[in-house]
Amino acid sequence: MRKIIIQGIKFDEKSSYQKGPKLAPPLIREALNCGSANMYTENVISIENSILDDKGDFEISEYFDIEKITKKHLNSGAKIFTLGGDHSITFPIIKAHNEKSVSYTHLRAHETDS
């Protein structure tokens, strides 16, 4: 199986309401690796996998740097899993796949103050 690169895109400059989505990538990793979690299913099957290659988080100053980063990772032959910022990061990520076959899943999570 091909490698899966995890890339965190810290960008929320096009957020239409509140800033903060760029803080998500490290918080997602923190939740995944917190002391109350583990890397096993209910059947005690390990979900740790050597095909995962976490490239860390990328501070974005120019919007289309997102496309460049994603293309670089795609050119390694890997599949890409992106943790991110605001909704606008989707366009340059999909654009980076221009010459490749694309299938994607877009997950959203929103937290509201009570």
Topology at a glance:
Layout (H helix, E strand, L loop, with lengths): L3 E7 L13 H9 L19 E8 L5 H10 L4 E6 L5 H7 L18
Parallel strand pairs: 1-2, 1-3
Helix pairs in contact: 2-3
Structural description of this entry:
The chain is an alpha/beta fold and 114 residues long. Helix content is 23%, strand content 18%. The protein has helices spanning 24-32, 65-74, 90-96; strands at residues 4-10, 52-59, 79-84. The chain has a 3-stranded parallel sheet. α1 links the parallel β1 (4-10) and β2. The chain is globular and about 40 Å long.
N to C succession of SSEs: EHEHEH
Overall strand count = 3
**Number of helices, counting only DSSP H or I runs of 4 residues or more:** 3
**Strand line-up in the sheet with most strands:** 2-1-3
Shape: globular
Helix content: 10-25%
Reported for the largest beta sheet, the result is:
3 strands, parallel
Look at the helices and sheets and give the structural class. alpha/beta
Q: β content, as a range?
A: 15-25%
How far apart, in Å, are the first and last alpha carbons? 44 Å
- Residue windows where pLDDT falls under 50 for at least 5 positions: none
Radius of gyration: 15 Å
Mean of all residue-level pLDDT scores? 85
